[in-house]
Request: fold
Amino acid sequence: MQKFDAIRPFYDAEVNTAIKGLVNHPMMKAIMSFTFPDVDDEVWKNQLLKTHSIRDFQCNFIYHSVQKVLENSSEGLTTSGFEKLEKHTPYLFISNHRDIILDTSLLNVCLFDHGLVMTASAIGDNLVKKDFLLNLSKLNRNFLVQRGLSPRELLQSSKLMSDYIGQLILRENRSVWIAQREGRTKDGNDATHPGVLKMLGMGSDEENLMDYFKKLKIVPVSISYEYDPTDALKMPQLMAEAKAEKYVKEKNEDFITLLSGIIGQKKHIHIHVGAILDKELDAIALENDNTNKQVQAVAQAIDDSILESYKLWPTNYIAYDILYNTDQFKEHYSENEKSLFERRLEMKIDCSNGVMMEGFLNMYANPVVNKLKYNNAI
Reply:
């Protein structure tokens, strides 16, 4: 399968060689010292050097790293919906996207805990430009989404990725995680980009696109953090968009965001996996024979599942009430929780800047706004 070499993770036969190249890297020492603070370097190095598969690397090392992140920077991870999934069955998880690394890492921890197939996960190649990060991502079963391409290159890249996702799910019995849009949601408005679905459809071998989507077993996933550890870091881009200016990332911005997401305080986290899209796809196929309209309808079905099941936290209700100058949701939070949120606001941003204040509050309030569109969702 050489055609996928430019984007695929390591094969198990390549894992041990890759580990030998990383075992003495200072970043590997930092990760392992964080994960196993009471273990001598030689012990984890010897264990790493005995590792010959991605699954062993994930279960024996990365699983424990994620647990340590949860222990140090959250008040716990809760889940719902996983009992609907079947063991040994691959799914295409399409999720809202808040954190570069944690969204997919936390989902895989949950899948492992429930005895389900873990995912191969899409990651932008702009995030893994350094050799260490690229090799670590390939050891973690990440495949690359190529960024910054010309329209012609983008078409070829999309077809390659679509074929690869089909290969993983339909032939290798491997689940896949992909975000509902390119890049993380900055303003709290989780919406599926039709372009993602069009890309997935490029690998179709079916006459009807909905039949192909049924074969992929699409499962919408909603993930919500009580506090977004990168909320303040999203502000410069939101400010630029508010002024209709083009936003240019600072050097190392992606890496700083990646690190902040891991170590920053998140308080509570919840992951919900929705029902597999099945009858919805049958209905869409009956209602439309226009592919573009079908894709729009699938995007809406994914959005409905994600937004309806999105877990709201006190921070969301507080932001809504402050933004809209109301006390509509005051029964959902305490005065202490409100003052803590307001203190965070003062520490993170310039509250005298109206545009910045509104942008920050919207980030937390928009999930409430979106949820209000669904009857009895709040």
Remarks:
- The first strand starts at residue 74 and ends at 80.
